[in-house]
Amino acid sequence: MSQMEQHGHGGDRWTAGELWGRPAKNFLDFSANINPLGPPRKLVEALQAALMEKGPSVLTEYPDPECRTLRRMLAEFHQVSEEGVIIGNGGAELIDLINEAVRPRQVGVIHPSFTEYEKTARKRGQEVRALPVRADEHFQPEEGTLMDLIRSVDLFYLGQPNNPCGTLLSEDLLREAARQAASHGTVLAVDEAFLDFVVEEEKRSFIRQIEKYPTTVVIRSMTKFYALPGLRLGYGVGHPEWIRPMGKRQIPWSVNSLAQLAGEVALSCSTFRTETHRWLQRERKYVVEQLKEIQGIEAWWGEVNFFLIRLRKNGITATQLQEYMGQNGVMIRDASTFSGLDPRYIRVAVRSRGENRQLVTVLKRILESGGDDKG
């Protein structure tokens, strides 16, 4: 594993700076899937105003440990009960808290998928059962095998859309997964961290059906879409039977006052949401067209803000390409670190037109030279 992947996440500009000898801020970061349009101006102005107050309470007073205002607003936004909402320090905390609440013996995951699902189980010594999905089947699970695995474990994590593939499950398949989970006492954690990037995500979110399935918990992130990775903010929605024990296991004040305020303001940023969807449709199309011109690679894209790319056989590996791109000031993910992917896979985010053009230029030059032209 390369040093860039030591923490299992993208966005590590500091390690990149140490490895490739340039200031951290001078890298183009395609390794983290953060919205390049954000944060919304309205949100930034609200944070600035709060910090400019005399003796600013967001700094001098403890945050609300129950995030009451944000919980109420999210409950109204999704038309669910407040008792069925929990706020967390990013989606990662909620992924961990659901495991703490369930205390499973066996945890089910798909390979490949977000690595935190498996990490949170293995650090507790729990058995992990994985369902591999294949590139030639567009990384979609076979329904019968998926249902068998859900019935056989205590907790199952399901990315919707899945990271790093960007694939979405059909609504029928997701409903059946939730039904099987409820029938067999399995808790189904549906991770919708990237669903905000999908057009009409309100209609696609499983939160709309959550009351029908008492053992399903939906995890949402506000970090990616609203570009708040430095604040960390996410939330979970589910039956109070599972939300309450998650809250009891949460450390006090895990969500700071600035993050709570950011979440409250973000819910009113409807124009920003529309602008983001327009940007993504335009830039995703551009990147797809450019990638098709690079010989020897294959890319998968869904409706989200990142691509999974497989490099040609007998060419340079993902780890080597990450090194060469880093030397050129461009950060990408070495996706071979995701269980189920071989050393040929990388993942790249979608960013602004100028940044996307630079990514494609460097990527094409390195790949077409077989790694000989590293800039």
What tags apply to this protein structure?
375 residues, alpha/beta, Aspartate Aminotransferase, domain 1, 2 domains, seven-stranded mixed beta sheet, 40% helix
Give an overview of the whole structure.
The chain is of the alpha/beta class. It folds into 2 domains: 13-39 and 271-367, Aspartate Aminotransferase, domain 1; 41-268, 3-Layer(aba) Sandwich (Aspartate Aminotransferase, domain 2), CATH 3.40.640. 40% of the residues lie in helices and 15% in strands. The chain contains 14 helices and 13 strands. Strands 2-8-7-6-5-3-4 form a 7-stranded mixed sheet, with helices on both faces. A 4-stranded antiparallel sheet has the order 9-10-13-12, covered by helices on one side. Strand 5, helix 8 (171-184) and strand 6 form a beta-alpha-beta unit. Helix 12 packs parallel to helix 14 (353-368). It is globular and about 60 Å long. The two termini are 24 Å apart. The mean pLDDT is 95.
Q: What is the CA-based Rg, rounded?
A: 21 Å
CATH homologous superfamily label of the largest domain = Type I PLP-dependent aspartate aminotransferase-like (Major domain)
The biggest sheet, with number of strands, parallel, antiparallel or mixed sense and barrel status, is: 7 strands, mixed
Order of helices and strands: HEHHHEHEHEHEHEHEEHHHEEHEEEH
**Proper CATH architecture of the largest domain:** 3-Layer(aba) Sandwich
Q: Output mean pLDDT.
A: 95
The number of distinct helices, counting runs of at least 4 residues, comes to 14
Global shape = globular
| CATH topology descriptor of the largest domain | Aspartate Aminotransferase, domain 2
